[in-house]
Amino acid sequence: MKLVKAYIRPMLLEEVYKALRSEGHCCITVFRGEGAGQYTDPDHAHGSLQFPAMHSKVVKIEIAAVDEDVNSIIEIIQQTASTGSRGDGIIFVMPIENMIRIRDGEEGPKVIE
C-alpha cells in the first residue's frame, strides 16, 4: 500500500480529478496551500502579508492506493497536471504500514477497495 501526494496547480485540480475518476481511482483528499521552492512558477509567484516570501498557490492531492494502482495514478497526474512549465508541481510516493477504517476496525487494503 502506498500514499501518493501530488502538489499541482489549483486550476488543474478538476481535470486531474476527472481523469483519476475515469480510470477508477475514486477516493482523494484535497488541501489548498501555498508553497515556495524550486517548483514555484516565477510568472505566478507572489508575496503577501501572511507569507512574505515569493510563493505560489498549490493544491495537494493525497491518494491511498494498493501497489498495483500507483503507476497508473502517477501517470494520470503527470499527464493531466503538466503544462510543460516550471511550477507544474511534484509527486511523492510513500509506503503505508497499515490502514484501519474507523467505523468498523477493518484493516489493510480492503479499507480502500
TrEMBL record:
This is P-II family nitrogen regulator. One of its GO terms (cellular component) is cytosol. GO terms for biological process: regulation of nitrogen utilization. The lineage of its organism: Bacteria, Pseudomonadati, Balneolota, Balneolia, Balneolales. It comes from the Bacteria. Pfam families: P-II (PF00543). PANTHER family: NITROGEN REGULATORY PROTEIN P-II, NITROGEN REGULATORY PROTEIN P-II HOMOLOG. GO terms for molecular function: ATP binding; enzyme regulator activity.
